[in-house]
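To the wet lab folks,

You asked to see what we're planning to order before we commit. Fair enough. Below is the target structure as tokens, and below that is the sequence we designed to fit it. If anything looks off to you, flag it before the synthesis order goes out.
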């Protein structure tokens, strides 16, 4: 599994990736993560690099890479289960987490889409007062230009269908 970190998140969990790896051969084993703040509360956005499918988790209490990975994987599992993708998580995401490599960000397109998600998250979490799961659900329903104005949820479902046959 490749986890692509921003400098800000890398500093928080004491990891400094030195290179950017190419996309993982398993698209569900390639995730990008960014730290952001809403009303003095830290959050982490975790986004699948291929589909832009995302999950939001609290940043509080995450002080090293092991805690981050544990919380990241459990949050991804919960969001995927809510979308009816638990089998996909069990078959394609969980096994890939046995070996994790931290990397620099992959492309500006992914970073730009994540920044769009962060702006929306700040609105949902700060102004509308949605929960983390509701925020993740809204983000995954939002059309993005990087995936031809489709939603990350639909992109993930198509990706899963292609991978599982």
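Sequence we intend to order:
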């Amino acid at each position: 599994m490749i986890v692509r970190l921003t400098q800000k998140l890398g500093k928080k969990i004491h990891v400094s990736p030195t290179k950017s790896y190419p996309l993982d051969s398993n698209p569900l084993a390639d995730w990008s993560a960014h730290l952001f703040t809403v009303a003095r509360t830290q959050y982490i956005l975790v986004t699948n690099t291929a589909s832009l499918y995302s999950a939001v988790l609290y940043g509080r209490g995450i002080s090293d890479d092991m805690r981050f990975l544990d919380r990241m994987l459990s949050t991804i599992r919960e969001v995927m289960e809510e979308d009816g993708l638990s089998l996909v998580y069990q078959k394609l995401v969980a096994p890939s987490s046995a070996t994790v490599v931290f990397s620099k960000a992959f492309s500006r397109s992914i970073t730009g889409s994540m920044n769009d998600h962060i702006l929306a998250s700040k609105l949902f979490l700060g102004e509308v007062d949605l929960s983390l799961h509701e925020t993740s659900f809204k983000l995954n329903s939002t059309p993005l230009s990087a995936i031809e104005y489709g939603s990350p949820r639909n992109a993930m479902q198509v990706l899963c269908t292609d991978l599982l046959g």
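Structural context that might help your review: The first strand starts at residue 2 and ends at 5. The beta strands are 2-5, 30-38, 41-48, 54-58, 101-103.

Thanks,
Computational group
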